[in-house]
């Protein structure tokens, strides 16, 4: 293997195509894969995010997923981000490569901005019609305050053949445009899926964990919130799932924080959820009954027990991991060297939570698509080693810059 581009006690960074570098890594040599690969959405016209067909993208995903499977220890997990329009191709490729699909995590955020075609404007533009400007989209101006054209006190018109991308609100000019006013082509982006796969076990989970240190998720290390919760026993099958507790929780045990969910919120979504459900699980009995031990019938009746008092209160967001989200990561998390910055940067706290979820203490994490180095920094802060690979030479100094700065140990995880 060629010499690493950068190496320290925690991170080894390789420059090259991930397929070439992965083929040189030993079998069963890493504990987890946490990665943010391209989504095949032709993001900002970047060549690294474009494929000729969806099938070609899936085939490519299968190639690197198969190499990740080989270098993972038995029972090792892979977390891979995907785009909402293409992640089914990613998930299929991961499964076809030999992984067991264990779950999918939905990262929900409220700051996405729709990139939709205004059908009404497109119709007028094709007809060469002029649209009258009747107002200003103040929300757009707040989002993009620089370089906006400000109209005079009275309305004015301009040719739609030269429509600027700005905050002008215009009226339809043709009958057809009136008919299709309010129609677009995309929804507001508000989530990204994360595929959770696991390499097949070597025997049972218990045997695999003892032999390889992999095969399980770090539940207690990723619990939500800091409140002390006690599971009151009502017999072997007594658990209160509707309150945010879980059937896996043993009766009579106390623990700090709630079981991690497969939905992760940003603070905007958490606030909206709390607005709609401000006292979910407050100190009152659950209405109705909750399931206890199942009968032998798959779809038949279940034995039931009356719900308990839950002994806690607060907004519904406390049941979910919550991280601060910004449409653009803050300067401290978005390295820049000269004029180069990476266009897609995940929140550092989110990546810390993910690497902790699937990596045993002191384990090695593989990131085949290092980008700006967020996963690598997350590994350093969580006490893991990281093998990172990046193909684009422009981004390598960003990663080194990120790893060379003083790292902050705080983790923002909402309840």
Automatic annotation (TrEMBL):
Biased composition (Polar residues) is annotated at 294-304
DNA methylase N-4/N-6 domain location is: 30-116, 323-399
Residue segments, region Disordered: 233-253, 276-304
Residues annotated as coiled-coil are none
Give the record's keywords alphabetically.
Answer: Methyltransferase, S-adenosyl-L-methionine, Transferase
Gene Ontology biological process terms from the UniProt entry: methylation
User: What GO molecular function annotation could you give as one example from this UniProt entry?
Assistant: site-specific DNA-methyltransferase (adenine-specific) activity
In the Enzyme Commission scheme, what number(s) does this protein have?
Answer: 2.1.1.72
Q: What general EC class does the enzyme of this chain belong to? A: transferase
A Pfam family of the record is N6_N4_Mtase
UniProt record similarity statement: Belongs to the N(4)/N(6)-methyltransferase family.
The protein in question is named Site-specific DNA-methyltransferase (Adenine-specific)
Task: Tell me the organism.
Answer: Promicromonospora iranensis
């Amino acid at each position: 293997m060629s010499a690493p581009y950068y190496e320290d006690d925690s991170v080894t960074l390789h420059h090259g195509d991930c397929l070439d570098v992965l083929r040189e890594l030993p079998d069963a040599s890493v504990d987890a894969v946490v990665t943010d690969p391209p989504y095949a959405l032709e993001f900002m016209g970047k060549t690294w995010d474009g494929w000729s067909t969806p099938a070609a993208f899936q085939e490519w995903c299968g190639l690197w997923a198969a190499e990740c499977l080989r270098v993972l220890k038995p029972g090792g997990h892979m977390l891979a981000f995907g785009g909402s329009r293409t992640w089914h191709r990613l998930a299929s490729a991961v499964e076809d490569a030999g992984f067991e699909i264990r779950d999918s995590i939905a990262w929900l955020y409220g700051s996405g901005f729709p990139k939709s075609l205004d059908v009404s404007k497109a119709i007028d533009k094709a007809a060469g019609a002029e649209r009258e400007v009747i107002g200003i989209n103040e929300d757009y101006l707040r989002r993009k305050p620089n370089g906006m054209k400000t109209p005079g006190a009275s309305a004015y018109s301009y040719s739609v053949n030269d429509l600027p991308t700005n905050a002008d609100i215009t009226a339809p000019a043709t009958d057809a445009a009136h008919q299709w006013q309010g129609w677009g082509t995309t929804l507001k982006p508000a989530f990204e899926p994360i595929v959770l796969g696991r390499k097949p076990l070597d025997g049972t989970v218990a045997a695999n964990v003892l032999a390889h240190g992999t095969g399980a998720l770090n539940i207690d290390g990723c619990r939500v919130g800091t409140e002390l919760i006690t599971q009151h026993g009502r017999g072997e099958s007594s658990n209160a799932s509707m309150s945010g507790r879980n059937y896996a929780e043993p009766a009579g045990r106390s623990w700090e924080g709630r079981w991690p969910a497969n939905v992760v919120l940003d603070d905007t979504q958490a606030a909206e959820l709390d607005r709609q459900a401000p006292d979910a699980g407050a100190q009152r009995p659950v209405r109705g009954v909750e399931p206890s031990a199942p009968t032998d019938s798959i779809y038949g009746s279940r034995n039931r027990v009356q719900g308990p008092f839950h002994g806690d209160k607060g907004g519904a967001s406390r049941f979910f991991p919550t991280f601060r989200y910004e449409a653009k990561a803050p300067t401290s998390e978005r390295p820049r060297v000269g004029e180069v910055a990476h266009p897609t940067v995940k929140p550092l706290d989110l990546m810390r939570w993910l690497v902790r979820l699937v990596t045993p203490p002191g384990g090695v994490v593989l990131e085949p698509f290092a980008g700006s180095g967020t996963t690598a920094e997350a590994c350093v802060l969580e006490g893991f080693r990281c093998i990172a690979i990046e193909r684009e030479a422009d981004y390598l100094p960003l990663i080194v810059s990120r790893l060379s700065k003083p790292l902050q140990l705080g983790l923002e995880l909402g309840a």
